[in-house]
């Protein structure tokens, strides 16, 4: 596994987890092995980094990644899947520490998983080691999905300082889920009925823009008109395309993401329920409790909270500084 390196070449400062042999520190070895870059800090800015296929996530707090003048604020309930070579910068600016969790796949792992998923057995048998580049658009996802659950399993193993062999198997499973996510992205294009490929790709791009805008500010009072405006589409055209591509209505997606964010805050912070209710976009505690209970089968007041006053995770919206 990668060895240690100087702090200047790594995006996160050193901490207790960096003693594990699978936690990478050397920028020159990126792509040769699977590795995790992780560390906790209150203030840091790293510009112009590029990795192999990777997942950007956080254990607690919030980390801002910027790519092509786009801003992605990653919190504990979200993740960002990046293709090989996608150049980014990251920023942490908070009162309480935030811990980033950056997964770097060895080159060929996700590519092989994807090729296995889409190729015939005859092709795989004839050229078992023929690995080709895997281009895809960066993908912002909830950690409640299959990729997020596989990431959580890896993060738990890293925190427990599991053996390198055990962690390596979790990397393989995570690589499969990352390939599945890329496959799902490509299936989304084909769910649209437009005849021209370019039209389907453009509609998908606009839908993703709107979904990312909503993700960036779940607390806003989103209406169908506002959502469609973010996608630069007519409201009902947007609604029909969103439902076709993502398998849920815009309102259903927003309700699910608000509930998932609330669940993450309940499980990982000691913030009062009413504060969490307002932070994720509900106007009253009663409506929040009813919606939450309908999804999870229990009211938010019954969710087990951390036993100690844990690091609070702020919900930060577009244009705000990262303050915990």
Verbal overview:
- The chain has helices at residues 109-118, 121-126, 146-159, 164-190, 197-216, 224-231, 235-246, 250-268, 273-279, 285-296, and strands spanning 35-49, 54-60, 63-67, 70-74, 78-82, 88-104, 139-142.
- With 324 residues, it is of the alpha+beta class.
- The chain folds into 2 domains: 7-186, Jelly Rolls (Sandwich), CATH 2.60.120; 188-252, no CATH class.
- Strands 1, 2, 3, 4, 5, 6 and 7 form a 7-stranded antiparallel β-sheet that branches.
- α3 (146-159) packs antiparallel against α4.
What's the gist of this structure?
By secondary structure, the chain is of the alpha+beta class. Helix content is 42%, strand content 18%.
Give the topology.
Layout: E1 35-49, E2 54-60, E3 63-67, E4 70-74, E5 78-82, E6 88-104, H1 109-118, H2 121-126, E7 139-142, H3 146-159, H4 164-190, H5 197-216, H6 224-231, H7 235-246, H8 250-268, H9 273-279, H10 285-296
Antiparallel strand pairs: 1-6, 2-5, 2-6, 3-4, 3-6, 5-7
Helix pairs in contact: 1-4, 3-4, 5-6, 6-7
Task: Give the tags.
globular; 18% strand; 324 residues; disordered N terminus; alpha+beta; Jelly Rolls; disordered C terminus; 7-stranded antiparallel β-sheet; 2 domains
Which stretches are poorly predicted, pLDDT < 50 over at least 5 residues? 1-9, 14-21, 24-29, 309-324
C-alpha termini separation: 34 Å
CATH fold topology of the largest domain: Jelly Rolls
Strand content: 15-25%
SS field, number of helical segments: 10
User: What is the β-strand count?
Assistant: 7
Instruction: State the CATH architecture of the largest domain.
Output: Sandwich
Taken from the alpha-carbon principal axes, the silhouette is globular
């Amino acid at each position: 596994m990668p060895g240690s390196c100087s702090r200047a070449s790594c995006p996160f400062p050193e901490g207790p987890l960096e003693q594990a042999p699978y936690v990478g520190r050397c920028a020159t070895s990126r792509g040769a092995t699977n590795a995790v870059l992780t560390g906790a800090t209150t203030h840091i800015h790293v510009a112009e980094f590029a990795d192999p296929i990777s997942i950007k996530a956080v254990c607690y707090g919030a980390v801002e990644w910027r790519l092509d003048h786009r801003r992605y604020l990653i919190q504990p309930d979200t993740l960002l899947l990046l293709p090989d070579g996608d150049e980014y910068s990251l920023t942490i600016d908070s009162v309480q520490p935030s811990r980033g969790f950056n997964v770097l796949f060895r080159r060929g792992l996700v590519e092989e998983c994807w090729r296995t998923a889409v190729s015939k057995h005859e092709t795989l048998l004839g050229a078992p080691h023929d690995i080709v580049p895997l281009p895809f658009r960066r993908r912002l996802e909830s950690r409640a999905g299959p990729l997020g659950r596989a990431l959580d399993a890896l993060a738990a193993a890293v925190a427990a300082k599991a053996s390198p062999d055990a962690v390596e198997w979790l990397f393989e499973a995570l690589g499969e889920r990352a390939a599945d996510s890329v496959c799902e992205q490509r299936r989304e294009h084909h769910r649209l009925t437009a005849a021209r490929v370019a039209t389907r790709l453009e509609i998908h791009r606009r839908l993703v823009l709107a979904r990312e805008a909503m993700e960036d500010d779940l607390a806003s009072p989103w209406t169908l008109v506002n959502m469609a405006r973010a996608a630069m589409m007519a409201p009902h055209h947007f609604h029909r395309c969103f439902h076709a591509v993502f398998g849920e209505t815009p309102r259903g997606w927003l309700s699910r993401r608000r509930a998932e964010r609330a669940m993450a805050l309940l499980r990982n912070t000691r913030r009062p329920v009413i504060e969490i209710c307002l932070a994720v976009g509900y106007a009253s505690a009663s409506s929040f409790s009813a919606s939450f209970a309908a999804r999870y089968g229990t009211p938010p007041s019954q969710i087990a909270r951390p036993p100690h006053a844990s690091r609070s995770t702020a919900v930060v919206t577009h244009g705000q500084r990262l303050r915990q």
